[in-house]
Structure formats: structure tokens, C-alpha cells
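Page 47, continued from p. 46.
Same chain as before, 113 aa.
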Amino acid sequence: MIEVEPERFEEMVRSALDGLPADLGQILSNVAVTVDLHGGRPGLLGLYQGIPLTRRTSSYAGVMPDRITIYRRAICARCSTEEEVVEQVRRTVIHEVGHHFGIGDARLREFGW
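Result:
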């Protein structure tokens, strides 16, 4: 386990989001990405909560933003170096963004995420 300061971890999440292909970033719709610095369920690195883009209909309006939460403590517990944390944050962000686009866990595993 490595301890990464909250500010540094948040910077890693921002960098992972900034590293998404520009065309994907432009179609992220009504989603907020947050960092949980202290909690989370053991082993849960990230969580997508919302209505995936593939399930939104023409009546989709007036709803709270979807939420992607990235769990610092769980990711740090899995890693032993800061470089590992950077890579795990990137993988977790991509995985949860995949859920926003309607891609399920099985398909994400096929893609290596």
C-alpha cells in the first residue's frame, strides 16, 4: 500500500480525464466525476451511478448528473508505487467512463479494462 496525498490523487484523476481522446470527452454528457478520499467499499476502485448514454431516450431531461466516483483509499491499497497508482487511476477512470457509454463489465474486461 502506498499513501498518496489527496491533492496529488485528485490531480491524477484530472490527468486521466484530460487523457481521454478529445472526441470522447466532447460526448460525455451530464456526468460529474468525484474523488472519495476516505471511504468506499473494500476492493471497489470506482463506481458509475446514472443512466448510460445508450439508455437515454428523448424524454431524458431534468435529471441530476450521472456520477463517477473514484476511490483513493481502495486504489492506494492495491498499489505499491505512485506509478502504479497513476496507471490504476487511469484504468479506473476509463472503466467507469465506459459504463457511462453503456459498456458492461464483461465487455470492458474483453477490452482489457
